[in-house]
C-alpha cells in the first residue's frame, strides 16, 4: 500500500493517520516505539532543516531501517518542501510522499509550482501534498488568509494534487491563544472536493477538536512541535539533576517521554477507527 491508498482508506473509514516529524535517532525511536505499542502506521516526516542536519541519505536509511526493525507499516514524507529542487532530491532518494509549499506565493504561482511537482512525481507514483491559505509559521501571527471552499476546489482541479493542507485556524508551533478550528469552513471544503485534507499545526490543539476535524474530512494530522518540546524539556530536566556524562544513559529517559506523548496522540486518531 502506498501513501495515496493509505489516505484514501482513511477517507473511507473516516479516520486519520498521524504524521510525525523526527529530528535524530532518539526522536525516531520514540515515534517507532509508540507506533508499535499502539499498532499504528507511521508517516515519518522530514523538513529541509532536518535533512540538512542528518543528511538526506542518512535520514532515509535510518527511517527505512526503523520501519523494518519495528515491523510497522511506514512511509517517508517531505514536510514543507520549499523548492522544486528539494522535491526532486527527495523523489530520487526514495520518498513515498512529498509536500511542495508555495502557499506564501500568489494563487497562480502556487498552482503552477504545485502542478510542476505533480508532474515530476507521477513517474514515481508518489503522493503529492500542497498548502493553500495561510497557516502561520513559527514566530508568525495567525491572522486571516483562511482557505475557502471555492479556491480549494479550483486549486485541486488545476493541479491534480493528492492531498491539501488547509488553513482553518491552526498554526505551526505553540499557540499564544487557545486555538479554535473553523470546523464549518472545513466541512465546506470537504463538501466540494474529494482531495485528502491535511491538518498542520496540531500541537496544542485539544484532542476533541482534532477528532472533530477528522470527522469533517481531515485524514492526515501533522505533529512536530510537541515532539521536540517533550524531548528537550525532559532532557534539560534530567541534566539539571545529574552529573552523568554518558549520553546513552541520559537520552533514553527523554525518549521515554516522547513515547508516552505519542501513545496518547496515536490514540486520538485511533479512537475514531473503532
Could you give the distance between the termini? 21 Å
Mean pLDDT over the residues: 91
Overall 3D form: globular
Read across the widest sheet, the strand sequence of neighbours is 1-2-3-4-5-6-7-8
The top-level CATH class is: Alpha Beta
- CATH fold group: TIM Barrel
Low-confidence stretches: none
Which radius of gyration do the C-alpha atoms yield?
18 Å
- Based on DSSP secondary structure assignment, what is the total number of beta strands? 8
Question: For this structure, what is the CATH homologous superfamily?
Answer: Aldolase class I
Structural class: alpha/beta
**Fraction of residues in H or I helices:** 40-55%
CATH architecture: Alpha-Beta Barrel
Largest sheet: 8 strands, parallel, barrel
Topology readout:
Layout: H1 3-13, E1 17-21, H2 25-38, E2 42-46, H3 48-54, H4 56-70, E3 74-81, H5 84-92, E4 97-100, H6 107-121, E5 127-132, H7 149-159, E6 163-166, H8 183-192, E7 196-199, H9 207-215, E8 218-223, H10 225-239, H11 247-270
Parallel strand pairs: 1-2, 1-8, 2-3, 3-4, 4-5, 5-6, 6-7, 7-8
Helix pairs in contact: 2-4, 2-11, 3-4, 5-6, 7-8, 10-11
Structure, explained:
It is a single chain. The protein has 274 residues and is α/β, with parallel strands linked by helices. It has helices at residues 3-13, 25-38, 48-54, 56-70, 84-92, 107-121, 149-159, 183-192, 207-215, 225-239, 247-270, and strands at residues 17-21, 42-46, 74-81, 97-100, 127-132, 163-166, 196-199, 218-223. The protein has a single domain (3-273), classed as Aldolase class I (TIM Barrel), CATH 3.20.20. The protein is globular, with a radius of gyration of 18 Å.
